[in-house]
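Board notes, transcribed. Complex of a protein with zinc ion.
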Amino acid sequence: MYCPHCNADNDRVLDSRACEDGRAIRRRRYCNQCERRFTTYERVERLTLTVIKKDLAREPFSREKIERGIERACWKRPISSERILELVAQVESDMQADYDSEIPSSVIGRIAMHHLANLDQVAYVRFASVYREFTDVEDFVAELAPLRNHLDDRPLDHSSDNAS
Ligand SMILES: [Zn+2]
């Protein structure tokens, strides 16, 4: 770290402590060159992704929007609101892992679907049907195929298959 007084790159850390409720680390540093002290802060970079929508319009990423979509998919399912928030956090951290400025909305949808598939079958299908805008039954069945394999050890309930 360059010294703000003499510009030398020769310092040692005297003291490190968490501040801002643990969201930052404050370091007191000592410049071996000019023997003066200075302070640096280390913070987690805030997520400032831009979402590219299907019509190529851009909008700032909204965590609330993802949360609403997932909440709607989980409506009346035995899933706690804590679990939903956890899932939203997982989606967000997956987004951050691979994208740092712009992300297509389709990728966000895929990430959310991936996590929902592991959480709840009904919520997954609800989310997928809204997100994918299935145009015909075959698309829908194709979407479900990997899920059925995934759940092979759990017998599916076919009792309502002929209801329509
Ligand atoms: Zn210095």
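The chain has a mean pLDDT of 82. DSSP finds five helices and six strands in the chain.
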